[in-house]
Amino acid sequence: MTLLRVEDLRVRxxxxxxxxxxxxxxxxxxxxxxxFGVAGESGSxxxxxxxxxxxxxPQGAQVDGRALYDGRDLLSLGxxxxxxxxxxxxxxxxxxxxxxxxxxxxxxxxxTEHVRVHEDASRDVAKRRxxxxxxxxxxxxPEQAFHSFPHQFSGGMRQRVAIAIALACRPKVLIADEPTTxxxxxxxxxxxxxxxRLRRENGLAVILITHDLGVMSSIADHxxxxxxxxxVESGPTRELLTKPRHPYTRALIDALPHPEAEEGSExxxxxxxxxxxxARPDGCAFHPRCAYARESCELSVPSLVPVSDSRLLAxxxxxxxxx
Amino acid sequence: MLLGVGITFVAFCLTNIVPGDPAAANLGQRAIExxxxxxxxxxxxxxxxxxxxxxxxxxxxxxHGDLGQSEQNHDAVTxxxxxxxxxxxxxxxxxxFVAVVVGVGLGVIAAVRRNKLTDHVLRVVSLGxxxxxxxxxxxxxLYVFFFRLNWLPGTGRLDPVVSPPPHLTGLxxxxxxxxxxxxxxxxxxxxxxxPSLVLAASNIGLLTRYTxxxxxxxxxxxxxxxxxxxxxxxxTVILRHVLRAALPTVITVIGxxxxxxxxxxxxxxxxxxxxxxxxxxxxxxxxxxxxxxMGVSLFVAVVxxxxxxxxxxxxxxxxxxxxxx
Lengths: 323, 325
Ligand SMILES: Nc1ncnc2c1ncn2[C@@H]1O[C@H](COP(=O)(O)OP(=O)(O)OP(=O)(O)O)[C@@H](O)[C@H]1O
Ligand SMILES: [Mg+2]
Known about the structure:
Chain A has helices at 46-53, 79-85, 107-119, 123-136, 142-146, 155-167, 185-202, 213-219, 237-242, 247-255; strands at 2-13, 20-31, 35-40, 62-69, 72-73, 90-93, 173-177, 205-209, 222-227, 230-236, 305-306, 312-313. Chain A is α/β, with parallel strands linked by helices and 323 residues long. Chain A has a domain at 97-170. In chain B, 77% of the residues lie in helices and 0% in strands. The model of chain B has no long low-confidence stretch (mean pLDDT 88). Residues 46-47, 95, 177 of chain A line the site of magnesium ion.
């Protein structure tokens, strides 16, 4: 069942020199129980595109398109409906664990306040749930942690607390922006197992943003690759990572050490740097860095079209396509 | 302790550096011309002894709760202070309370409505509060609310026909309430309104401006976005998450507000014939009543130290990172 359908999402952010297009027409859908992976270079608009879904962008942001959840468009929810949706239907774990917790409120307060608002839960019920969650994200001595403050924890522990906060109201969709980046491998594996269990048992859908293709291949069902504010390729994880069709996906995989790499293939950095949102090239934004670029690539922006049952590609040349 | 010695020393030096002869200021014209009378005056108040000895004697007396005798009315300074402090305390506390409630409230509103009409209006209002001279606000207030509209009484702590409530704290409103004298309470309260508002004006401006900027600094933090993402209602986000983090700045400014009130009291009490420390300080200063001046200085110093101490303690209460450090 499709939980969330994003259609032609566009975001323009105000800057000192006028609005700049950050997200430039993104479509995807997320199914119940699915882990939907999002990858792409830094600055490609991954975070901005998910903040837009929760109406959490800075003031002055212009958002177009639709994000349908439960028959309603998230992008046009009024304040009251928005507040009820946030945290309860869709929850979010932010990229930076050091700044995303309130420094002056106890962990317990931050874990329970929204449970009490959304579910009208008593203090005791909320606390019991908080302690369970702290156990689930493997915080040692949850009872004591409940009464502690963020500065008493390491970055990794804070990230786990942030995950516990996001899961506290049992959301249907979890947006996790680099949730495991600050964690060491064993804890990371624990968190991924927890997410995996929640999606199997409760049908939790996860939008997982990560640079780590290892994490991606171990948990994501589906991956979308972002480049310069657009999705350039998407498909089932295993297929996409083993047989990338977009030159950028290929380059991204080659640039990262990962378990799926073919024997003998070497690591190659992608030549050049990603375009800034202000100076995006015409046509396909990747063409200046693309080994297969032709003249036609400069002329029109390629649209994301199906190339097989399950795969979408935004490259009409398709140099890596099946032969 | 060390601070106490420092303050008495500074107060002592300042009062002795002041050019002016207390004898000249306190004795009649006739007596001034009589060297014997001047000498007797100086001897009576210990002014003929060397300065270090005067200071030593002074300290000795302070330790024993004796601040000397006023040269004006020959009452013990401690007695005078005891009589005037409650009047000022009542005025100052109400004024600070009003300033904090109104100033912080307006500051938060201005920040939330940033760059909208409300914000611009509040900016003008707060600038006005800070920059308009207190005596001018006082005179306009008196003219409008007392003279023109006659909504509020003009001067003093009570109407002349009303007798003060039985002494308990010296704060008439509190004492009247404690004694169940409702009409006395109401009368005392009406007398408080205008002077305390006048005294609050510049602090309201100050608190509005600092609260606004503190809130704006906090409101763009990631943890505020986290609170919104959890679905916390807007007012809870502002009050619990934003204001909480802005509180250290606000507390600092409230500390400053106390200092403003102490200086403002001199002016306001004189304009409103408020029988408090401010008026006493003014009278002692103009008559060079050294023991009284030093008594007032000591009192002001004690207030500053206490306020600073409380502010420091509050920092720790508000911010767990300071508490545990
Ligand atoms: N408040 C803002 N105002 C203007 N531009 C912004 C703002 N926030 C982000 N940007 C720009 O938007 C672009 C996309 O940012 P975003 O944070 O979505 O990238 P990302 O894909 O999440 O990268 P990363 O992997 O580093 O997190 C960047 O070029 C960034 O400079
Ligand atoms: Mg990001």
